[in-house]
Amino acid sequence: MTTTAPALRRRHGGIHRGEAASGWLFTAPMIVLLGLFLVIPVLMALWVSFSDWNGNGSPFASGVSFVGTDNYHAILAGGGLAEQDFGTALRNNAWYVVLVVPLQTALSLYLAVLVDRRMLRGRGFFRTAFYFPSVTSSVAITVLWLFLFSASGAVNQVLSWFGVHGPNWFSDPSGVIHDALQPLGVDQGPAALTQHGFLGVSWWDWIGGPSVAMTAFILMAIFTTSGTFMLVFLAALQNLSSEVTEAAMVDGANGWQRFWRITLPQLRPTLFTVLTLGLIGGWQIFDQIYTGTQGGPAKTTLSPAYLSYQTAFTNQQWGQGAAIAFILFVIIVAFTLLQRWVLRERGVPRRKRFGPVTPGPATPGATPAAPATASEVTP
Amino acid sequence: MQRSTSRWLGGCAVAATAALALSACGSGSGFSGNDDTTGGSTGGATSTANLTSSDSALTVMIGSSGDAEATAVKKAVSDWSASSGTKASVVAATDLNQQLAQGFAAKKPADVFYLSTDALAGYASNGSLLPYGDLLQNKADFYPSLVSSFTYQGQLYCAPKDFSTLQLVIRDDDWKAAGLTDKDYPKSWDDLEALAKKLTTGKTVGLSTNGEYARIGAFMVQAGGNLMNDDSTQATANSDANVQALTFVKKLLDEGVYKYAKEGLGEGDGGQALGSGKAAMTIEGNWVTGELKNDFPDVKYTVVPLPSGPAGQGTLQFSNCWGIAKDSPNQAAALKLVEQLTSTDDQLAFSKAFGVLPSIQSAADAWKTDNPTLVPFLDGANYAKGVPTAKGASDVVADFNSQLTNLAKSGPKTILDTVQKNLEALGP
């Protein structure tokens, strides 16, 4: 839509008369393709989530009836196993996202800054090495991970050199926060947390942290995706004009200050992209679960995406499966909007407009420089 | 910006309208073409005359355990095809549930396919399956417990393909090292407990299985219980018998003479725990023979019947059946194919190829002669119980499994009460 916007804006000129029509003509193939393979299936799935379709024949056949929000009710407030499973999946995935997104963003930014340095020898080698996990298929990496993190695998071998008795990674359903509390003598949660809950999962279990098995997947996600996002950050870093940085150096800003005050603010749009992609990818985790653990041990690696698949294809609850997918969709959109709001352009902070807060002769030019370029990058 | 937004919305409206128009066309012509062409009434096929018949080729979809199984089924089907004159092809599905579901939704399903006890109720209730059981000429030959596993609302839907039961597998080296002989095989739970204690040494635990219903359920049957009654119409999860069984299991776990293969030993299942020497005894099905032969060819083992519990002998059995699609244009030929695939000859050939037990009683003697060391597995058919087949029961079992991981910490009664509640919520 953004590509057609400039042409559409000038609608009165004689020479531009037919532009709207040809614009539509040129975009028509894509609109038809998107409609056929995206919009229609999505609308069909939306209908299925409100119907009692049982998987036999077309969802629009005469025998299929509208059941209102029954499917959504069963998942969100049914009080049964469906609600409990959804709550469990949501908890697992929430911990996954909370840990993966910040860590992978920080790591990829760190790697990008490292390989961006002009002084570094063998930059090409490191760039390839860091990017390598991203080009390998997630199935292959999952299999590799299952071996590395098996009870007698390489990871536990290395841990044993340091006298650490590694956990039985992919078979350990205990939450890491629960595990951390155990040495402190906290074995059972307080009744206030264990007796009440949300979506069929007690608050005590909500705060239990990702299971040890899920932690292995979290490490894997960070390992595989940070290469891709490093590339995104690297592209953005190389696009930054060195003049601003040089100006800051002239003003006497040290490396740490230059990173936080000059580089990072200019990377805000890229940061938004990376966080959004990470968030969406994080909530859609499926391949690893499907090939690795099928939701086990004790359902602690169940994710909403995998639960949706399992509910529909294995348990023949097509309406509930589709409903889970749409709830997941709403969650992703909500988090993206929230993040957009958090990272929105706030303009120049008031106190900075009036010069540095600490009076003194130092750096009259450096402070205004950063906000000025930040607003220049994002029109 | 304002203007481009409204344009964008306009574009959306056009796309949505196009989408609705297209979907209307789709539902009109493509999807629901042959609703009324199937011969059988909804009440089930009562005679072979009601079956659809045509000269269209048959598709057989299997969820294969490996090359040996796929090759054996392909050979059996092509032999039948050559003798009957009906073309037939075998598809080894990578994800059977998904590929079956796609076929049913498109009204173009495979004609004959593997069907698990889990999936039966779902497909039977939505009218995807042809309930052909009563038409089978060899119906009386199938083991009764298998027939009840594939009976849904009083009708036998499909012919049991083959089956497996659980028995006790013992590692010979450990057994001898502990000074035990073939007179010491366990007869009761007390025997089992004493033996597990005796066989537990520094590196080896006495007994190990996966911590799931599909193994521990055998103790429940030995105590006279099971998660549901035999035809899966009533939940019996929190019965005293089941509580007694789980209490016994918990006791063994607490004593450290029994460990779950995954959580306790870091092995994939009981067979691997036995093969790797981390466990002296395990409870596994007849598939364990193939597993041990491939992964641990040097390990010597003995299969003996599971000990009797308070209610006598008991074990679990697992089975698949040959489903026939209601939408198949050639049900008559499909039925003939299934009769051939469940015949004594074909079942013995399958058994030789991939180690399953024949589902018909008339093949038992020949099988026992061929497999003298594995006789306890087949004998198990006389006292085995099936797993619950009610629609949605597999979910409840999965949840039960996740709670069994925690059995050492929580109480048997608490766990079984939850299972009972979940099973009752499934409805009739």
UniProtKB/TrEMBL annotation, chain A:
Main location group: membrane
Quick check: keyword Oxidoreductase in the entry? no
Source organism, top-level taxon: Bacteria
Q: Which UniProt keywords apply?
A: Cell membrane, Membrane, Transmembrane, Transmembrane helix, Transport
Per UniProt, subcellular location reads as: Cell membrane
Q: What organism, scientifically named, is this protein from? A: Luteimicrobium album
One of its Pfam families is BPD_transp_1
Tell me which SUPFAM superfamilies the record gives. Answer: MetI-like
Q: How does it sit in the membrane?
A: Multi-pass membrane protein
Membrane-crossing segments per the record:
21-50, 94-116, 128-151, 212-237, 267-286, 322-343
Asked if the record carries the keyword Transmembrane helix, the reply is: yes
Which residue range or ranges hold the ABC transmembrane type-1 domain?
Answer: 90-339
Region (Disordered): which ranges? Answer: 353-379
Protein name in the entry:
Sugar ABC transporter permease
What protein family is recorded?
Belongs to the binding-protein-dependent transport system permease family.
| Compositional bias ranges of the Low complexity kind | 363-379
